[in-house]
Amino acid sequence: MRRPEIRRRQLLRVALGVSAGLSGAALLARLAGGDDDSIATNDGADGGNTPAPSADSLRTRQRMTGSKAFIAAPLGQTLSADERRFFEAERPWGFILFGRNIGSQKQLSDLVGSLKDVGGRKTTPIFIDQEGGRINRLRPPMAPAYPTPADIGRLFATDPKAGERAAWLQGRLLAADVMAYGINADCVPCLDVPVPGAHSVIGDRAYGHDPDAVATLGRAIADGAMAGGVLPVMKHIPGHGRGNADSHLELPRVATARNDLAKSDFAPFRALATLPAAMTAHILYTDIDPTFPATLSPIVIDSVIRTEIGFDGLLMSDDMSMKALSGDLYDLSAAALTAGCDVVLHCNGEMDEMRRVARAAQPLAGDAKRRADACEAVIARGAGTADLEALRGEYTSLMAKVG
Description:
beta-N-acetylhexosaminidase, Glyco_hydro_3_N, GH
């Protein structure tokens, strides 16, 4: 049987499993064509009676088996003993930080160092949402405040050259701000294109309402971030701009025809399809897949993201603990990974939930590992030399034109 046909049948089995409400183990067994009993679990890591492995054996295991396909978040400002053991045993590919993890400059640097230590690699990705405007985990005095992405869009509308330069500068300066603490991945740019009547969750996080302008400014932000040694993650693919709800709280639904989405919502992502990483949208596009939101949809991921948009970089889910998704975290994570996400993201730091996500995630392999390695190569390049004081002065002068 040809490989594409095998893949289609696998995805159909998964879709039927999610629809039928199967457990995560049964779901994976259906994909493999086996029985529930064929799914191996790590009872020791989930709090069973298996003795905890030594630190040396954990590091040896990590070198031998590699990182697993999930991104985790610590709960507080330091790693607890349980978190350290869990992370060392379950080997998440990367980590993400939030305001709850940030107290002081030294504390944050120490926490990042601890996460890279348990990650086992200097290039262990440490993510943060630092966009400028209202989405910033680092706030003064930990890092400067910046105008909104919409402000950059307004500058671009009156002076395209100045706007594009300001976007690059903001990307480069955001990279410098997070790299000061060892953070090496920033979830920017936001390439969503809002439309009238959409929920305000995107709002001024967007660079504008014109897909071409959003693409131009998004590319500049991403290039600036990479010049600063930081991995950019474009979001929320294939587009959150039309969402009629806040996906943190409920599932947005978009009924717009696929052809219309392709002309606007998909366009910035298509223009930036060569970027190394992207984050999915927890949105139900009813004209494309009326059953599953993008993060869980083999149709959206394969037909839209991978084929129509042409994105071959690392695809990470949005936070699996957001209220847009409902169900057991094991089932949801297994479904997202089987649908085509390379890694799943879990953000609330709840240990019981993380255990469920970790059990669904397998060691990175094949295309997913290739894409993850390419992301770490961006991090490994590091930052180019720059006069940051001069860049900040130039940025301030350009943004002063917005008024």
